[in-house]
Write a structure and sequence with these properties.
Oligomer: single chain
GO cellular component, one term: ESCRT I complex
CATH topology of the domain at 2-154: Ubiquitin Conjugating Enzyme
InterPro entries: ESCRT-I_UEV_domain (IPR052070), ESCRT_assembly_dom (IPR037202), SB_dom (IPR017916), UBQ-conjugating_enzyme/RWD (IPR016135), UEV_N (IPR008883)
CATH architecture of the domain at 2-154: Roll
GO molecular function: ubiquitin binding
Order of helices and strands: HHEEEEEHHHHHH
Largest sheet: 5 strands, antiparallel
CATH superfamily of the domain at 2-154: Ubiquitin Conjugating Enzyme
Shape: rod-shaped
CATH class of the domain at 2-154: Alpha Beta
Structural class: alpha+beta
Keywords: Coiled coil, Endosome, Protein transport, Transport
GO biological process, one term: protein transport
Number of strands: 5
Helix content: 55-70%
Radius of gyration: 53 Å
Low-confidence stretches: none
Strand content: 5-15%
Number of helices: 8
């Protein structure tokens, strides 16, 4: 009885001449669609025919026949609500298949056969041709691919592979499609992980390059400063050598001997004054050293007082002698 009502719906749709007429123009095409639909509905009684407007990706609107209902996959898997649209150029163009979903049953992400919007594809649809393919074969293929990988449910036990001699070419293509799909996802995830690591490494290498560049720039500046300092010291040495040459000072004494021997005093009085002045400065420097040692706790206070007294007495005698030599000269 249900089949009779479905046949009536199909026949009424086929011969409708109003603005709701179907987009199938060829009468032979209509009879072929009718025959394929009846074959499908006899075996899949859970599907129901209907007429609806289909909007293509380019925005074109056509009135098409569709069958909608639940496909029984297996005893352990839930039903799948599908919509099969019969294309206006059927059987030369494959039908459009959608899995209907709701908020309680979202489609699994990265599904090999169904995208997040429910659009379904398979090897059967990809290899579709006008001969050897029909709606009934498509429905059987949908049951097989959904038993292989259900769009709403992850099965713990995957269906076992039949003996190769009993497996159809289409089933092999579907299984290969599924495995390649997950292999591609795994490869993409590994590639993304490697790319992220390489990006991190690249950033670290850039930081190291910048650090090395800063070091090199600093060394170049230091090199420039050292060159400038060497030039200054060379110029100062040339000036000193010229002065020694002009004043006829013994260079071998000035360079390799006692420094004081390079300078000649006018007389014994001047020589004695220079020695007194040198002794005075040396004693002054020594007392500064003792002050620093006392501040650092290297010497005790008693030792410091004793040494300062001795040095002060000697400095007093040196300065007294220096003043006396000045008096004698004047």
């Amino acid at each position: 009885m249900a089949l009779q009502s479905q046949v009536q719906i199909i026949d009424n749709a086929m011969f409708c001449n109003t603005e709701f007429a179907l987009s199938y123009s060829d009468p032979d095409q209509k009879w072929l669609i009718r025959r394929h639909l009846l074959s499908l509905l006899r075996e899949f009684s859970s599907l129901n025919p209907a007429i609806d407007t289909y909007i293509h990706n380019d925005g074109a609107m056509v009135n098409l026949l569709k069958v909608e209902g639940y496909l029984h996959i297996s005893q352990s898997l839930p039903l799948v609500h599908v919509i099969i649209w019969v294309h206006e150029h059927y059987p030369y163009v494959a039908p459009m298949v959608q899995v209907k979903m709701d908020q309680t049953k979202p489609i699994r992400s990265n599904h090999p056969f169904v995208d997040p919007l429910g659009v379904t594809t398979s090897a059967y649809l990809h290899t579709w041709g006008p001969f050897g393919y029909d709606l009934l074969g498509l429905a059987h293929n949908l049951v097989k691919i959904f038993s292989l990988d259900h769009p709403f449910y992850i099965a713990n036990d995957h269906p076992t592979m039949s003996h190769p001699s009993f497996v159809s070419k289409m089933e092999c293509m579907d299984r290969l499609w599924c495995r390649l799909h997950y292999d591609i996802i795994a490869l993409r995830e590994n590639t993304n992980y490697e790319v992220e690591n390489l990006v991190t490494l690249e950033n670290e290498m850039r930081m190291r390059v910048d650090f090395a560049d800063n070091i090199i720039i600093g060394l170049d500046h230091e090199k420039t400063k050292l060159k400038q300092r060497v030039k200054e010291m060379t110029d100062e040495a040339d000036i000193l050598i010229n002065w020694l040459t002009i004043n006829k000072v013994n260079l071998s004494v000035a360079i390799g001997g006692i420094v004081e021997d390079a300078f000649e005093c006018v007389d014994d009085n001047s020589k004695n004054k220079m020695e007194c002045a040198a002794e005075d400065h040396a004693l002054e420097d020594l007392m500064y050293v003792l002050d620093d040692a006392l501040g650092k706790g290297i010497v005790s206070h008693d030792t410091y007082i004793k040494q300062v007294r001795v040095l002060a007495r000697e400095q007093f005698l040196a300065r007294f002698k220096f003043g006396r030599l000045n008096t004698l000269r004047s």
